[in-house]
Amino acid sequence: MAKRLCLVLVCFLLLVCVWAENSKFARVNLASFKWKDAEDTNNCSALESETSSLIVMHIQSKCSPFRLPNITWRRAISESIKGDTQRHRAMMKEDADLPLIYGNTLFQQREYFIKLGFGTPVQSFYTLLDTGSDIAWIPCNPCSNCLTSQLFQPSESSTYNYLSCASQQCQLLNLSTCVDNCTFDLFYSGAPEVHVLLSSETLSVGSQPVEDFVFGCAVSGVIQNYSAPGLVGFGRHPLSFPSQTATLYNRTFSYCLPSVLSPDYTGSLVLGNEALSVPSLQFTPLYSNAFNPSYYYVGLNGISVGEELVSIPEGTFTLDNSTGRGTAIDSGTTITWLVESAYNATRDSFRRQVSIPTLPSNPISTLFDTCYNLSDVEVGFPLITLHFNDDLDWTLPMENSLYLESSVICLTFTTSRVEWSIIGNYQQQNFRIVYDVPGSRLGIAPENCDGSMLAQ
Questions:
Q1: pTM for this model (two decimals)
Q2: HSE of 382 in the Cβ direction (CA atoms, 13 Å)?
Q3: Across 6-10, 245-249, 323-327, 415-419, least confident range
Q4: Does 48 or 179 have the greater pLDDT score?
Q5: Is 376 annotated as catalytic?
Q6: Is 64 helix (H, G, I), strand (E, B) or coil?
Q7: Are 114 and 127 in contact, with CB atoms under 8 Å apart?
Q8: Catalytic pick among 37, 40, 97, 130
Q9: Domains observed in the chain
Q10: Of residues 40, 97, 134, 330, which has the active-site annotation?
Q11: Beta bridge partners of 341
Q12: For 244-282, b where at least 16 C-beta lie within 10 A, e where not — what string?
């Protein structure tokens, strides 16, 4: 009898262990989100890279030269979330005036940057990494009303050239008017911000030179000194970085963005087929959409909250080239925007599975409508899994779907007001995201941004 009871107990414990291992819930309390505001910058010089594996840094991380004074890491993330509305409006084409060059709107909360070299001899610049933009640009001297000390000096480079309206590269922009030199405007919130002269120059990616790289030389406009004054677009346009460096890197790249809970960490950008050499990579097809030709679309086909497959109307995520419907993944958007029917169903399932009541309002952001007062209690929150074509299931850790400020914790998804959805960088943190454009596939693998693999 004692042996039988012992056997029953062992079986019960095994069942409990299996349930715990496969559980789609995470126990969360205030200690779960251990924000770090480290001020030690002694090891920042070690972040320089001279290879095709480049450092990716958050604009407000401890080693960033653009970090605002007297701002905490938590506050920086909060501001990024609040500023995401502006980028979303621009990407969704909700402004009356659109940029002449699609995918080159300026955004307030620009976040992750890399270091590149321009010119001969090399002049180093920090440029924002953005898969939702195309043409690279940096401020050039002279630059009227450019509030930054980082200015490229064309006169000091022996390889600099400006491009005329008749150039093949200018023709790719489909400008409505062009008189002499190829110029265009970058826009922010419907108003012109930066006047750009299309140019070519030798680009240095670490120690690798890229001759005749086409970029925009900003010669006037308001370029704020609290943001990295430059951008490199990783979109699909012929003048984007992946397209212009295709012979070197085969339009293949990956990035790992640092966790919001770890400002000490830096991420990385890997260029070329080396990006495919990642353990535990799972792939799903990449798609293009004629309505949004610059963006990378993925085949999101369902969402689970905890163990529950959310009931979403059929066709919600189906790709439509006439309306832009589908799901894009973007490094420059902060949180994830789901079309209304998908968001409402996901939110309602999430709320049903949380044991404490939802706050009627929250002090963090109007983007969030599902927030809770965590205080000193521990609560079980369901994990969210995104289901993609080719059976890729991406289960998000709690820090990729929840945001904590003071004692209020919120679900970091919100409603898209148009037909297409965007997976933001908050959900991508501490994952290796691989863009294999020739293979038309996106790879995802868990990874700490310091290079060590997360436990499977």
A1: 0.87
A2: 22
A3: 6-10
A4: 179
A5: no
A6: coil
A7: yes
A8: 130
A9: 27-34+277-445 (2.40.70.10), 83-244 (2.40.70.10)
A10: 330
A11: none
A12: bbeeebbbbbbbbbbbbbbbbbbbbbbbbeebbebeebb
